[in-house]
Amino acid sequence: MPFQTVAEAVDWIINHEMDSNRTDISRIQSALDLLDNPQQGLPVIHLTGTNGKGSTTAFTKELLISQGLKVASFTSPHIVKINERIQFDGEYIPDEDLFNYAQIIYDLNQKMEEENLGSLRFFEIMTIMAALYFRDVQPDVCLVEVGIGGLLDNTNIFDGQVAVITTIGLDHTDKLGNTLKDIAFQKAGIIKPSAHVVTGRITDDSAIAEIEKAVRLNDATHHAYQDNYQAFDVRIDENKLTHFTFKNESVELDMMIKMLGQFQVDNASVAIEVCLNWMEIAGLTVNVETLKEAVKNTFWPARLEKLNDSPFIYIDGAHNVLGLEALKQALKDYFSDKKITMLYSGLTKKDQEAHLNLLSTYPVKEVVLTEFDFVGEVLSIDDAHEVVEDHDTAVHFTDTDNWQTYIDQFIENKSDQEMLIITGSLYFVSQVRDYFK
Q1: Tens of pLDDT, residues 247-267
Q2: pLDDT attached to residue 409
């Protein structure tokens, strides 16, 4: 037995190479062949998108559970613990199951190496574990969130009867391509023959054309935002609750969400369309009242999540341009009465020049640059200042080498009229969240 404890199993998993070459998915397919393909025959909703896929998955999960379905999910990254990535009916995969599947995958990895098929990467291990767990718990539906892209992502070994594409933006360009057309081609790679395809607010003509081409080639059915369903009459009440009307070709519903931001209205609307579509495919009747309650009560950590009341402190994992643009708009919509300070740290693999340029246009009085402990390449304070100094900006940029102390002092010294928003890498905001929790 390779592991004696759950901690040893987790340590083995997370110490595998985090990334793969993403030239194909033949290695994970070979591994699954050796396990008699546990991923086959599962009822799957497959979700991708540059932004919004995590929140959309969260909304979809709560909606389907509200209709009495047994729902499994595979998401990334984890905010709390690795078990969070694989869930069944809203509960993390138990330690005992994670331990047992890790033993199986360890033996599988040994066999892969002996047969010169290559050692499994971290995300391949987690995807295989999700497939094994889903096979064993036999849910009514599996929500599978893509890691990066779609066509070459390890999750594309699942056969999604519904494919969801939330947004298309420039992110992971080193892997997915430098144009929105290229990225749309990769994300549309999750569309399977005869699938139903639900797309969110995608406005670029080349991206839309690429998705519609994949729809036609697979004889799929397309449910497009604005064309087949939409959200309108968005309004924010005095309690910062967001109300909107959802309408598709069959229903019109007044909805409300607690999660902040216009982009969450978009994500909720995609999820509602997905849920209604899945229920129709399954021949099930929708309970509208429980649907509304599920939308209202959906929560997704590190997405404009409040950590402190006096003064307000929020975290948001806005780790690309689309996310930062959405966060900028949310600050204007919900917190125009506050004096806002931002605490920011990101990774060098992202387009930090674009990120920092965008931050220089934020409705904030100050951006505080910092660094955090992480195995990847964290943008240094000095490099960040170099980028900022090359551009004119009305926003004051400063820095701190200890974000924990900075947060403590902010809480101690600031008034209720002030607010701190902490953003950048999801890994950074998850560490901040852990510091508070």
Answers
A1: 999 999 999 999 998 899 999
A2: 96
Q: Binning pLDDT at 50, 70 and 90, where does residue 18 land? A: low
Contact 80, 195 (CB under 8 A): no
Q: Distance of CA 54 to CAs 37, 136, 142, Å?
A: 26, 24, 14
Region at 178 (left for phi over 0; alpha for psi -120 to 50; beta for the rest): alpha
Strand ranges of the sheet holding 312-316, from the earlier edge strand across to the other edge: 305-308, 312-316, 418-424, 339-345, 366-369, 396-399
Question: Is-contact 246 239, C-beta < 8 A?
Answer: no
Find the Cα–Cα–Cα–Cα dihedral 265, 270, 273, 276, rounded to 10°.
-90
- CA of residue 366 relative to chain centroid, distance: 28
**CB of 200 within 8 A of CB of 49?**
yes
Compute the distance between CA of residue 271 and CA of residue 63 in angstroms, rounded to an integer.
8
331-390 tens-digit pLDDT: 999 999 999 999 999 999 888 999 999 999 999 999 999 999 987 789 999 999 998 886
Asked whether 318 and 43 are in contact (CB, 8 A), the reply is no
Helices (H), 173-302: 173-176, 180-187, 205-217, 262-281, 288-297
